[in-house]
Amino acid sequence: KLSFASSQVAVMKKELEELQPKLKIAQEENLVLAKRIATESKEAAEIEAVVAADEAVANAKAAAARKDKEECEAMLAEALPALEAAMEALNTLKKSDIDVVKSMKSPPAGVKLVMEAVCILKGEKPDRIPDPSGTGKKVEDYWGPSKRLLGDMKFLQVLKEYDKDNIPVAYMKIIREKYTNNPEFDPDKVKNASSAAEGLCKWVCAMEAYDRVAKVVAPKKIKLKEAETELA
């Protein structure tokens, strides 16, 4: 029995010795596999982090785009009622209303003030006339150009189709400095002199309000379009 046991031990010992190289190979393979899994896990974590960062950036851009869109809509909502009111005011005017203003020999100050503003927005240059106060100097006067504008059969239609999105900066600078900031430049004040002047005053005020908003909204619209294209 002892000799059988000894022989069995010897067999087992030999088998273990033969198995050692295989075990070593298996260990090495397991080590390589573990390293590969670790590398792939690290790469997966890095990819996940990049994806999460990209998603965060996209979400931030989407939120900014929504904010820009809301701001644009809010600003336009502020300007559009004035614009609509001005168009309605122009629609109520008749040729006879315009003719009354055109025929004025000595127009009230409010009427002249409104027509000056209309001339500026239309790019009309003032006439140079002798100073009525008798200084002997020449002064700028818009009543001549005003009457020429009022004499145009399509005058009201031209105002309705005015390119409000591309008003020259120089024109609007004068309008803001000299007219819309003037307490006398008020539809309620000039209407006593002329219903046409009231409507034209509303139109000038609406152009100023729309331009003020458009100058802010335009770049936001471009930015919004770029963001929507990028997020699409």
How would you sum up this structure, described in words?
The protein has 232 residues and is mainly α. It has helices at residues 2-92, 95-102, 109-121, 143-150, 155-160, 169-180, 187-190, 195-231, and strands spanning 127-130, 138-141. The N and C termini lie far apart (84 Å).
Question: What key phrases describe this protein's structure?
Answer:
single chain; mainly alpha; 77% helix; 232 residues; 2 strands; 8 helices; 3% strand
Task: Give the structure's gist in a few sentences.
The protein has 232 residues and is mainly α.
Low-pLDDT ranges: none
N- to C-terminal separation?
Answer: 84 Å
H and E string: HHHEEHHHHH
SS-derived structural category: mainly alpha
Helix content: over 70%
Anisotropy-based shape: rod-shaped
Strands ordered across the widest β-sheet: 1-2
Give a quick account of the main beta sheet: strands, pairing sense, barrel closure.
Answer: 2 strands, antiparallel
Number of strands: 2
Q: Determine the strand fraction and express it as a percent band.
A: under 5%
Provide the residue-averaged pLDDT.
84
Give the number of helices.
8
Q: If you compute it from the alpha carbons, what radius of gyration comes out, rounded to the nearest whole angstrom?
A: 41 Å
